[in-house]
Structure prediction request, 249 residues.
Amino acid sequence: MEIGKKLKEARLGAKLTQEQAAERLFVSRQTISNWENEKTYPDIVSVVRLSDLYSISLDELLKGDTKMLEHLEESTDIVKSSQKLILAVIANIVVFLACLLMAAFLPESVFMIACVFCLAVVSMTFLMCQIVKKI
Amino acid sequence: MENFYIVFAAAGAAAVIVGSFFSMYQLYRLVQVDAECRGLKHPKLWGAFAVSGNNSSGLLLYLVGRRKYPVLSMSEEQQQFMNRYKKRIGVGFIFLALGAIVCVLSLLLGEQLV
Prediction:
């Protein structure tokens, strides 16, 4: 079963309204609604608090919902996101070194300049996206 | 035939301008929310600082400077806003990159092919 349905069932089992649950978790009622409708997913701290509030184990809440696990992996895997950033920096360095080497050793060609420009723009965009993701 | 490439170049340049202004504004808002969550004074100023400077140096300096200030509190709404801004910045960057490629390719290859 998906986490939204589990949360709703657990809340009803604990005889709490969305307002009461929101008050105890220090979030808005809309947030509880979003979690239950799976518009957004709770972070790991909220999942622990929800498990305490509804007296339901983390096993029951998390297991079986691949989307939720993907969300947690994405939001907590710092190593993976750092690896992407490092990859983007290395790709940029390689592209600009390649530009320098080509300019020094190969005859000037408009087609080559166009290709190198496209490559540089793509690698730069990838790098900028990775930097923004880190915010 | 020549005008055809000039039109492409102009469209590319327009996409670059729109994409860059859109990305800058979204980045300003993103940094503003981030600064608010970290309890930094004058979050709008930090937003403006992050989008200023060549080579995104403002953003990099902000990222280095904020390390001393951990996130104090972040509501679900703020988290949603930040995710939304990040997606929009990504779209803006793609728009900008495609515009730049179209513009430069039109100018470089247009002359060759005509």
About this structure: Chain A has a mean pLDDT of 82.
